[in-house]
Amino acid sequence: MSELLKLGLIGLAGGLGAVSRYGVNALCAWGLRGWGAPGWVWGTLVANVAGCFAFGLVWALTESRWPGAEGVRYVVLVGFLGSFTTFSTFGFEALGFGVNHRYGMMAVHVLAHVILGVLGVWLGMMLGGRTPSL
Question: What is this structure's pTM?
Answer without folding.
Answer: 0.73
